[in-house]
């Protein structure tokens, strides 16, 4: 029997009715928001089994998003690595708006319309979720407020411009480190003021129940497509799959359709500048259990227990001091391995994919590719499938200013 057969009913068993994945998850909310999140949960439970909702979402994915996105074989990159391991990419960078984020944003927008809401509220780090939600708002004729750290607004100027052109109101978070964690703080505060006519569309598989479950369900399309496409291309399953993990939406979407297959699963966290507190955002690798932003998970809190540590990554979408509760659970039970790569390893992967395959990846996705390259160099894998979760247009100014055009990173 397949040693992973115990996971055959995984999606039916997790989360439980309280939104928990083992010891993680749940909903830790101020009293005034309990009713609002219960309303979202009831509405989602009602429509997720509705043929009308499912068929409309499928139509949107096909006609508007351009799904399915392809799986691509990186022949030149694989040859350059030189161990015989073949690297494949799930091309979520080709999804409309340039990343996986639209998969759950269109689902959340459709849910908001069903609930009679008139505004979408969200946070964003790298801006990909913000762009995707602004796109969904324009598609469905809804208002849109996007909260974004002041540092990330400067760092991700192209995405900020896209959000504003799409009609979103981009609101800077100006407290603390002025990055993703502070954007989430500000978005929650904004939602508390307007929850009666708005819906908070969380940008990853994090937050209070039901959002980790909802975002996961909407993102499963990535892994479902990829599994079928890979078998169609090669006649077999990949030996391993890899995705970057910040909050964890792109990763959970790729991973779960492979969970009861004989496939290694690797989540790649941002190690940033090093292992000291404040130099990275590797929440699973270095975190301990804590509660933040309404859910319980692994959290970086070494300096002051109960308060999140400052975090850092050159990838704005990964610099978050916690991780989705489902990832924490899958780590604890040993089904998924979580590794970490540094800024420099990610940037080297960024330039390698650009030069050898003509694909410029997001820095977030470059972390996943860097993790796959490290595995490939071990020489123990025939094939590795990587979720290329986003394209790198948004990062070009930052990369060129900080790292140049890559010549130093590609020297042997």
Structure described in brief:
Helix content is 44%, strand content 17%. The protein is α/β, with parallel strands linked by helices and 412 residues long.
Structure description:
The structure is a single chain. Helix 3 (about 50-65) packs across helix 5, helix 4 crosses helix 14 (about 345-355) and helix 5 (about 100-115) crosses helix 10 (about 210-235). The protein folds into 2 domains: about 5-60 and about 100-210, Rossmann fold (3-Layer(aba) Sandwich); about 65-100 and about 220-410, Rossmann fold. It has helices spanning about 10-15, 30-45, 50-65, 75-80, 100-115, 130-140, 150-155, 155-165, 180-195, 210-235, 250-255, 285, 325-330, 345-355, 365-380, 395-405, and strands spanning about 20, 25, 70-75, 85-90, 120-125, 145-150, 170-175, 200, 240-245, 265-270, 290, 295-300, 335-340, 385-390. The protein starts with 9 loop residues before the first helix and ends in a 9-residue tail after the last helix. The strands form 4 sheets. The chain has a 6-stranded mixed beta sheet, with helices on both faces. The chain is an alpha/beta fold and about 400 residues long. The protein contains 16 helices and 14 strands. A hairpin with a 2-residue loop joins strand 1 and strand 2 (about 25). The longest helix is centred in the middle third of the chain and has 24 residues, at about 210-235.
């Amino acid at each position: 029997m397949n040693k992973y057969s115990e996971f055959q009913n995984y999606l039916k068993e997790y989360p439980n009715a309280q939104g928990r994945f083992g010891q993680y998850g749940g909903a830790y909310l101020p009293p005034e928001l309990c009713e609002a999140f219960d309303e979202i949960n009831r509405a989602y439970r009602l429509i997720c089994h509705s043929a009308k909702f499912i068929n409309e979402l499928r139509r949107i994915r096909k006609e508007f998003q351009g799904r399915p996105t392809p799986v691509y074989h990186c022949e030149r990159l694989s040859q350059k690595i030189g161990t015989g391991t073949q690297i494949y990419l799930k091309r979520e960078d080709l999804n409309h708006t340039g990343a996986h984020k639209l998969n759950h944003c269109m689902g959340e927008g459709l849910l908001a319309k069903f609930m009679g809401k008139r505004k979408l509220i969200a946070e964003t780090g790298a801006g990909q979720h913000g762009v995707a939600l602004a796109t969904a708002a324009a598609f469905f004729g809804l208002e849109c407020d996007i909260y974004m750290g002041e540092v990330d607004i400067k760092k991700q100027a192209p995405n900020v411009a896209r959000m504003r052109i799409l009609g979103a109101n981009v609101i800077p978070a100006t407290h603390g480190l002025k990055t993703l964690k502070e954007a989430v703080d500000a978005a929650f505060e904004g939602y508390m003021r307007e929850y009666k006519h708005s819906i908070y569309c969380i940008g990853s598989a994090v937050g209070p129940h039901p959002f980790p479950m909802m975002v996961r369900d909407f993102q499963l399309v990535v892994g479902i497509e990829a599994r079928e496409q890979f078998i169609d291309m090669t006649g077999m399953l990949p030996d391993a799959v890899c995705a970057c993990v910040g909050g964890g939406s792109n990763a959970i979407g790729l991973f779960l359709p492979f969970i009861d297959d004989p496939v290694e699963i690797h989540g790649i966290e941002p190690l940033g500048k090093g292992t000291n507190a404040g130099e990275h955002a590797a929440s699973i690798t270095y975190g301990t259990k804590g509660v933040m932003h309404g859910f319980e998970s692994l959290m970086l809190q070494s300096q002051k227990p109960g308060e999140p540590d400052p975090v850092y990554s050159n990838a704005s979408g990964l610099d978050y001091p916690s991780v989705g509760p489902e990832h924490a659970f899958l780590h604890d039970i040993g089904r998924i391995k979580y590794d970490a790569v540094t800024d420099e390893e990610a940037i080297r992967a960024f330039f390698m994919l650009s030069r050898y395959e003509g694909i410029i990846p997001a820095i977030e996705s470059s972390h996943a590719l860097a993790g796959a390259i490290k595995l490939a160099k071990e020489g123990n894998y025939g094939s590795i499938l990587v979720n290329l979760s986003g394209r790198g247009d948004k990062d070009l100014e930052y990369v060129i200013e900080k790292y140049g055009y890559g010549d130093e990173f590609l020297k042997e």
